[in-house]
Amino acid sequence: MLPSTIRAEPLTAEAFAPYGDVIEGPSAPGRADDLAAVLVGSDGRPGVHVLRAAKGAALPLTVARMERHPLGSQAFVPMGSGRFFVVVAPAGEFDPTAIRAFVANGRQGINYKPGTWHHGFLAANAGDDFLMIERAGPGENCDFAHLDKPLRVTG
After folding, report:
1. Residue 79 pLDDT class (50, 70, 90 cuts)
2. Contact, 83 vs 103, CB < 8 A?
3. Which pLDDT belongs to residue 1?
4. Alpha carbon distances (Å) from 106 to 17, 24, 36, 79, 97
5. Structural domain count of the chain
6. I need a labelling partner for 56 at 20 to 30 A (CA). Which of 27, 103, 105, 109 fits?
7. Helix/strand/coil (H, E, C) string of the chain?
8. Does residue 133 sit within a domain?
9. pTM of the model
C-alpha cells in the first residue's frame, strides 16, 4: 500500500546508488575524477544544457507524476550553491510504494541511471543555475507515470 507521506533524507552516495550517481567535488584541494556514468546509448550524444530554475520548491512537496528516460542518463549539477530535492523510484515497472526522497546540500549533483523514475527537477530557489547533461538524439526518451493518489514529501 502506498504511504500518504514519506520523509526526505540527506543525499548520500550510498543511499542514492540504486538510482544513479552522486556528483560531488573533493573535500580538499585537488580533483575528483570519473564521478558519473553518463550514458547516451549507441545512437545518442551527450547534450549539455544550463537550467535556470523558474521557481523554488520547499518541503512539504506534493508528488503526483514521475518520469523516466529509458535511453540515457540525466545529470544535474549546481553551478553555484543550489540546493535541490530529488524524488526517485527504481527503474523497471513503476512502483509508487518504492519512492524515496533526498535533499541535495548545494554542493552535490546527481546523475540518474537510464530508466530511473524521478520527479521533474525541484530547485530550492528560483534563479539558481544547474548544469544538465542528458542524452540527445533520436528516439522517444521520456515516459510518464501518474500516481493514483498524490504523495506528500516532508522534511
Report:
1. very high
2. yes
3. 64
4. 19, 10, 17, 9, 28
5. 1
6. 27
7. CCCCEEECEECCHHHHCCCEEEEECCCCCCCCCCCCCCCCCCCCEEEEEEEECCCCCCCCEEEEEEEECCCCCEEEEECCCCCEEEEEECCCCCCHHHCEEEEECCCEEEEECCCCEECCCEECCCCCEEEEEEEECCCCCCEEEEEEEEEEEEC
8. yes
9. 0.94
